[in-house]
Design brief:
alpha/beta, TIM Barrel
Length: about 290
């Protein structure tokens, strides 16, 4: 899966003033990513507020991204949930001619054991017509996929990697230390994406990357090429805004930033709400200052 090495972005779903999906803004967003060097797109993930989209809306969002992308970069589709049977049925519908891989989050709320996670993802992988990337994000799912579990799942045919978003660099390094060479280890945390890549990771699925696609892509590319000084500079330049966009939750922060850049309206679906005016101003100040350089 070399096509998924580098910088992927977890796309937001733009909404208009009526709360409907803003497909014109979505088209602008996709062009913005590809024109500034993103390696692949992730659709219907957490950042896309996928849990608030109807089945029809999800299908329309995916088709819009596919048509706008026009085969330029790979597309990864988020397909996950806490009922294994439902996830397996949904994943069977994925069209391998349109989607390169699926990103499947650990079951949330019902808190499976490590054995339960292995059984769940084995069933998902067997049902999927495309390769599966595991997604470990214990801050949202209330269960952490341990390195030993990841390594066991790496043996399952059709499971090709993990988006590791525990925020625990030591845990990521333990996976990196012993994972098979062709098993993708992808950072799911913008703040530790650089150290993960420098320790042998294959890239990132980023949130801030869709606000600063050129810069973040260049950082990951520089790190993979061993240009540590260049990668460090970009990382430290972006650190303040990475903190800001997650301060009051995702995707509230990144939507405020993208609104400031003229890509979409600052609209979310309940229970999410926009960031407060103080944070919005700080994000605007950062965007203004960074574009002046």
């Amino acid at each position: 899966m070399r096509e998924l090495i580098g910088t992927g972005v977890a796309l937001i779903t733009p909404f208009d003033d009526n709360g409907s999906v803003d497909f014109d803004a979505l088209v602008r967003l996709v062009h913005f990513q590809i024109e500034y060097g993103i390696n692949y797109l992730v659709v219907s993930g957490t950042t896309g507020e996928s849990v608030t989209l109807t089945k029809t809306e999800k299908e329309a969002v995916l088709q819009t991204v596919i048509e706008t992308n026009a085969g330029r970069v790979p597309i990864v589709l988020g397909v996950g949930g806490n009922d294994t049977q439902t996830v397996a049925e949904q994943i069977k519908q994925v069209n391998p001619n349109e989607v390169t891989a699926v990103l499947s989050v650990s079951p949330m709320y019902n808190k499976p054991t490590q054995a339960g996670l292995i059984a769940h993802f084995t069933a998902v992988a067997e049902a999927s017509p495309v390769p599966v990337i595991l997604y470990n994000v214990p801050g949202r799912t209330a269960s952490n996929m341990l390195p030993s579990t990841v390594l066991e799942l790496a043996k399952v045919p059709n499971i090709v990697g993990i988006k590791e978003a525990s925020g625990d660099l030591a845990q990521a390094m333990e996976i990196l230390r012993v994972a098979p060479e062709n098993f993708l280890i992808i950072s799911g945390d913008d703040m530790i994406a650089l150290p993960m890549v420098l320790m042998g990771g294959h890239g990132v699925i980023s949130v801030i990357g869709q606000g600063y696609p050129a810069e973040f892509s260049q950082m990951i590319q520089a790190a993979r090429q061993g240009d540590v000084r260049k990668a460090q500079k970009i990382h430290y330049d972006l650190m303040p805004v990475i903190d800001m966009i997650f301060e009051q939750g995702n995707p509230s922060g990144i939507k405020a930033l993208l609104h400031n850049k003229g890509i979409c309206l600052n609209r979310l679906r309940l229970p999410l709400v926009p960031v407060d005016s103080s944070l919005e101003q700080r994000i605007e100040d950062f965007v203004t200052e960074s574009s002046a350089h």
